[in-house]
Amino acid sequence: MTEQTVAIVGFGTAGVNAAIALRGAGYEGRIVAITRGPAVPYSPILTSYYAGGQKSFEECFPWTAEEIDCLNVDIIEHCEVDSIDVNARCLRTSRGDFAYDKCLIATGSDPVTRGFPQVEGFEPLTLRSMEDAERLKRVAEDPACKRVLVSGASMVALKTLEACVLRGLEVTLVGMMPHVLDMNALPVAAERFERGLSNMGVALKLGTTIASVEVISDAEGFEGRRLEVTFANGDVERFDHISVAHGMRSNLGFIPQGALEIDRALLVDPYMRTSDPHVYAAGDVAQALELISGERSIVGIWKNAAVQGACAGRAIVYELASREIPESFAYVGSISTNTIVVGDLLFISAGTIKLTDARRVEVREDDDMLVAHIYEGSRLVGFNLVCDNTSARGVAYDTGGMLTIRIIGGLAGARP
Amino acid sequence: MGLLKHSDVYWSFIGQCTQCGYCTGACTSLTNNDITLGGIARALLAAERKASTLEELRDNIMADESLVNAVRGCFFCTSCKNTCFAHNDVCDLIYHARVDFLNLGLIPREAYSSVMVDEEWDIFTAYRAIHGIGYADLTRHRAQEGAEAATDCDVAFFPGCSLAAYGPELTREIFETIDGFSEKATMLDSCCGSSLKSAGFFERAEALCDRNAVEIEQSGAKRLVCVCPGCANDMKAALSARGLDIEVVSLSAFLSENGFTPKRPLPETPLVFSKSCQDRDGRYLEETCGALGVDPETPAIFRGCCGAGGAVSAFAPERQAAQADSKLSFVPDGATVVSMCPTCTYTYAYRLMESPRDIQSKHYAELLFENQFDWDLTFAQLGGMWCGEYGAWLAQVFA
What we know:
The complex is a heterodimer of chains A (416) and B (399).
Chain A: E1 5-9, H1 13-24, E2 30-34, H2 47-52, H3 65-70, E3 74-76, E4 81-85, E5 90-93, E6 96-99, E7 102-105, E8 109-111, H4 130-141, E9 147-151, H5 155-166, E10 170-175, H6 187-199, E11 203-206, E12 210-217, E13 225-231, E14 236-239, E15 241-244, E16 248-250, E17 266-267, E18 279-281, E19 286-289, E20 296-297, H7 302-320, E21 337-342, E22 345-351, E23 359-365, E24 369-376, E25 379-388, H8 389-414
Parallel strand pairs in A: 1-2, 1-7, 2-3, 7-18, 9-10, 9-15, 10-11, 17-19
Antiparallel strand pairs in A: 4-5, 5-6, 8-16, 12-13, 13-14, 19-20, 21-22, 22-25, 23-24, 24-25
Helix pairs in contact in A: 1-7
Chain B: H1 7-16, H2 22-25, H3 28-33, H4 37-49, H5 54-63, H6 65-72, H7 79-83, H8 90-103, H9 123-130, E1 155-158, H10 161-166, H11 168-180, E2 185-187, H12 194-199, H13 202-219, E3 223-226, H14 229-241, E4 247-250, H15 251-257, E5 271-275, H16 283-292, E6 300-303, H17 317-328, E7 336-339, H18 342-354, E8 360-363, H19 364-368, H20 375-385, H21 391-397
Parallel strand pairs in B: 1-2, 1-3, 3-4, 5-6, 5-7, 7-8
């Protein structure tokens, strides 16, 4: 009998967890992982800590080379998959074709710079990969770099801002929405967060965008130039560098149109199977069950990628053995959870902030902390917490944990 | 399978851990040992990889002092889990590590002999036997001399071992009140098994809880009233695992919904509430405030383990004392610390006896009912048990 092959496209959180689950479930066949990154993957969550000087390079790798070796995976590193042929069950790459019996797509997502004007001779900073972090670190450490503009107000943008603040840079944040964290924070929580940012010296330009950027020669500027930015509101300011984080986009460019069912990402069933029975998806490329809406959506957080990867790995083992996958292996779904610390400012959120006629907000605020609860009837469906990290640290994390459990408990109670 | 029985759990954990290190800052045990939760899993797997025999594995683990201290020094308080943005399940990790430690002979079983609560004799049953504390008349679902086992109870009461052993009058008073609010109540005077779990006897703890669940089912009860949030968590899990439609409610919630009025005024001293680490979603504290007529937004609250969790005292009693002291440091002199779990009340009372301060340690039930714990008497009796007429027997039983 020919040895079976499981191919993993992308070897980050989801991919590694799939490999762990495959081996843990007793799969002894070949696992081949094709990744544009290194054989030992880094954590995208830790890149801002590296750029900010809180973590060393080595500390950004959640798994050691020895641990990855234990998984016995043929890793084709620094290799892009050009396309997938689902009929031939084959991955096409510049290093040849790779046939598979089952394939997991776990290619993650990349930051989007869409909307940032093209500027000749200037490439803005982004933050996702270790290379991105390395570049941001170099810029931030250069004494000639004093003023940085962060474009975008999402979690990724704030992670960049966090690194810059840690490096003592003068930072301006520009966002097209009226508030920061518009996907995660209610206006009342965002306002408190913004006050905290202002108090630590971050200049906020919200409700506007970058209209144009001009490179101006300046011997005293970073790399002998300054960037003159004209904002949509007419303001003009000069910066040493610009970082752009206008959201994230799932990496699905190698999938031929119509080959797999795609909405915003690959639609998957409870066992992370796509529309093709031999192709699975996990992490930022998968649109899986979100518990509050009951719909399939991308909840692009580390934990989901890990759990979904493991879920796919276990399911693959059963399918390869032509055994029915136990119901207990199904992906239970997720809620969105986020934590971010900028300087001494802590923001924790979970659940949804989407307001409907059936939902109401209750805000409790004192000098130490703001907690906004979103209720649907008597059921908690989301919360935002903003506080000073030093004075409220233990209480804040305990409250965040407690409210997250309440959201999940409410969901469990609502199920039959 | 490798040399470690639960290497799959450790692999799964390191898969989900980013090694960001936030958990370390949230826990004195992790801080003292400069290790993350993922680091614990990683160290166990590394020790396994370097070993070809169980003896080598034992040596490798014992050579890693940080690992041993972190695994045995965990209170199961979940502070680290709250801090972990991935909400990784620390309890699951440490429970399994302790099971592996036990299997490898790295934890001396005799360290926990007095809390083997699924055996005939443990510290609670011995104390009750020596001091004549029994509840045969209240455990109506068990056949008694001259009375058949009741199967028509509607409510079961679960006081937990500390309350049943050290507060017999209070236990009876609570039962009578519950009985008065129900058609027919019964009481389970057994343990939820948390001390077994803490020690690493995970399966035995689950088996004990399952036996409790069977008893409750046989009693006919549709509601289980728990005094302690930890007992409630364990019993919820056991009842759910059996697929039983039995609701677990806190004593405070049960009393409130039945219009109970506290039998004594609140102490005039300031109240400082200890939110139990087992009170994961904070409902116990909220419901207790409700039963006491205290606005949950106003009282002073401190969080975290009293030091009794995780059977740490059997390994490092000084850590338990330090943990209790660190929590009591939130309580000003002249105040009353109100705990949710009777074992916390016991722990704080014991610490205040050893290192006196002008602080009262009270369980919330003591603020609701007439009867009180008498800790001076209890500690004297507990100490006296070992040298009195039962001393030799106890020494033999718990050897």
